[in-house]
Every structure is written in structure tokens, then in C-alpha cells.
Amino acid sequence: MAPEMSRPGGRTARVRSAVLAAAGDALIELGLPGLDLAELARRAGVGKTTVYRRWGSVPAVLEDLVTDMIETSAPRADTGSLDGDLLANAELVRSTLADPRQGPLLTALVCAAADDAGTARALRGFYDARTAVWEPCVTDAVARGELPAGTEPAAVVRAVSAPLYHQLLTRGTRPDTADAHRAAAATAAAARAGVFVSAGARRTS
To answer: Hey, what's the signal peptide range on this chain (predicted)?
Structure first.
């Protein structure tokens, strides 16, 4: 587990920002095996002692990097309709994956997670947190009668982003606007058809 980090302003915040930015850049360029704290300190322009004392290990830096991603992520949209909300979610994922830095960074984190349990745990936390932020778009749609009762919110949200991540990670191509529209429309149609209704809800219906 990453050490508990204070979030004050001033020099402490600047050091954290510089080291996390350096960690992201180095992870993209070198991969997990090429990272060490001395290199991160050099890239960030801070003392090695500061980095060793504050984080203590490369995995701890990466866990803090993911924590920062959670803290700075955009809020969910509330368009008033299922189709609008899912499209907004798909567009946010698309723009993130298509970003010249964020796309490669997420790809590098997925690769790092395969070799480090701490990074994997932190990355799962990131996706769980982002999914939870968008779940109300599904519960609101159920309340409005747009979706059947028992629809699993997390499953719907994950279904929107899954094809966009799949395209980036398996084909190496950044998703475009048409891909985002397709992912949102397909997920909305499947949700309306009851594909994401929980097994328990099916048994009691």
C-alpha cells in the first residue's frame, strides 16, 4: 500500500506534482523495469533523499500516481437521459485514451499492473472509483423508467468503456468519435433489452 500522503500546498505539493509527472513520463518511455527512484528524482529535479523518504519505492510512486488520477478525474455528466449520459461517458473515455499522453500512460500502467501487485491494486481502485462516479446515470435511468428494474449500474458503465480500451490495447489505435458513439449506442440498446439485469432480479421477476 502506498504511504499516506498529505495534500498541502506550497513546496510539498510542487514536489509531488513534479515526481508524479516524471513517473508517468518515465513509465511511458522505459516501462516498469526501467524505473528507479534516483531516475525519477533526476527527472523531477528534486533531491533523491526527498523521493526516498516520501515514497520509498517505485510501486509506491505509481500507486500515488493512480491516486492523483482519481483525484483529478472529471465528474460525471447529467444530461437527463440514458443515451446522453452514456454518450458523455464514452466521449470522456475516448478523449482520455486518444490523448497523446494519457493514452500511452494508461497503456503503460496496465502493462505495469501485470508485473506488480500494488500497481494492479491501485489501477483496479481507479477503475472502481470512476465506475462508481458514473453509476448514477444508470440508477437515474431505472428511476425514469428507461431501463428495467434490477439493471446492474457498474456492468452498464463498464460496457461503455470496454470496446474503447480493447481497441487501444489490442490494436494500438486510438478510438475516435464514431467508436464512442457506437459503444454508447450498443450499451444503451443492450441495457434496454435487459442484458444487464442481475440474476437475482431475473429470478424474482
So the answer is: none
Tens digits of residue pLDDT in 52-92: 999 999 999 999 999 999 999 989 999 999 999 999 999 99
**Residue that is last in its domain, among 55, 70, 85:** 70
Containing domain of residue 121, as a range? Answer: 75-204
Domain end (from 18, 43, 70): 70
Q: What is the pLDDT of residues 112-134, one digit of tens each?
A: 999 889 899 999 999 999 999 99
Whether residue 155 is contained in a domain is answered as yes
47: Cα within 13 Å, side-chain hemisphere: 6
**Cβ-based neighbour number of residue 71 at 10 Å:** 9
CA–CA gap between residue 10 and residue 168 (Å, rounded)? 37
Q: Return the closest-CA partner of residue 26 out of 58, 55, 50, 2.
A: 58
d(CA 39, CA 43): 6
Overall pTM > 0.70 = yes
Report which of 74, 98, 102 is spatially closest to residue 176, judged by C-alpha positions: 98
The contacts of residue 5 (CB under 8 Å, 6+ apart) are 16, 54, 64, 67
Number of domains in the chain: 2
